[in-house]
Amino acid sequence: MRAAGRLLEQPRLRLLLALSGLGLGALLVTRLASQQRLPPARCPAGMVLTGPRCCGSGQSQSGGACAGRASSCSALQELSQRGGCVARFGVVWLAGGALSLGTADWEGASQRERFPGGSVAPFRLDASEVTLERWAACVAEGACPSRPGEPGLPVSNVSPEEAEVFCRSAAGRLPTAAEWVFAAAGEEARRFAWGGSGLVCRRAAFGLVRGPCADGGSAELSGSRPDGASPDGILDLAGNVAEWAREPGGDYSARGGSFRSETAAELKSWSVQATGKAAAHIGFRCAYPP
Are 96 and 231 in the same domain? Predict the structure, then answer.
């Protein structure tokens, strides 16, 4: 018994080798291998994994959508009238401040030309990406065209001009590039919205098309990665859908990476895609006066 106790204190590999002569090594190897085949943890408490999607508890996946009435959602979502999960609407006030790229970041040199820098005045920003449920209000006012889909999904395939129309209907506008990066990086130049490290599938909806988090997936319900919120409580600044921001010269860029992103470099707080065209992986959120 004392010998067995000493074995259990050894590193895992040595333990397997030691127990193989007792006929237990194969069993442990099989158990560990089965654990390694499990998909990476992605869904928060209140949601369940259904194929490549995180849906509300009690829902199933049908045709790539979360179907049925949810019994619960993530902590930062609520049930829509149709029974699905939608991000709770909220606007976060940001005090602004100096915006600088951390000199210690290994990728800093290649990103400086596209980093807005400078000083950011106080502003307010949507806590979550604009959802189809919010878009429906603009449709009802006659300012936005109708869009099908689950109410809790972020609006995508939207041009920056269409996004500006929506934001104006909500008494806002698209954020500037400096505002967007400040919300994600803060004055401390965080690599990711939540901090300097820890990019995992439970914090950001990324790598959902060809891995590493899933295969054959697409955008997730807004607010389904509460563990990836910024210190100010802003969700999905890394992954899910990239988001339109207005650059200093008046052009638009898509920032923050998306569900298609596969590497950390695509998801850092200052990552940017220079494009003005609507795409399935690009959505938006609105900014407002302080």
Answer: yes
CATH of the domain at 140: 3.90.1580.10
Nearest Cα neighbor of 211 from 279, 257, 259, 163 is 259
Closest CA to 225 of 196, 255, 204: 204
CA dihedral 229, 259, 120, 251 (to 10 degrees): -160
pLDDT over 70 at 212, yes or no = yes
Count of structural domains, the chain: 2
Name the token pair of 132.
């189809």
CA angle 241, 246, 251 (to 5 degrees): 105
CB neighbour list of residue 239: distance below 8 Å, 6 or more residues apart? 204, 205, 206, 225, 228, 256, 257, 258, 259, 261, 267
Domain span holding position 28? 2-36
Q: Which two tokens stand for residue 219?
A: 């955008």
The answer to whether residues 148 and 266 belong to one domain is yes
Residue 181 counted as domain residue: yes
Q: Which of 200, 201, 203, 281 is nearest to 242 (CA)?
A: 281
Total length of the chain: 290
Residue 3 pLDDT greater than 60, yes or no: no
Buried b (16+ CB within 10 A) or exposed e, 251-286: ebbbbbbbbbbbebebbbbbbbbeeeebbebbbbbb
Determine contact, residues 99/120, Cβ cutoff 8 Å.
Answer: yes
- Please state the pTM of the whole predicted model: 0.84
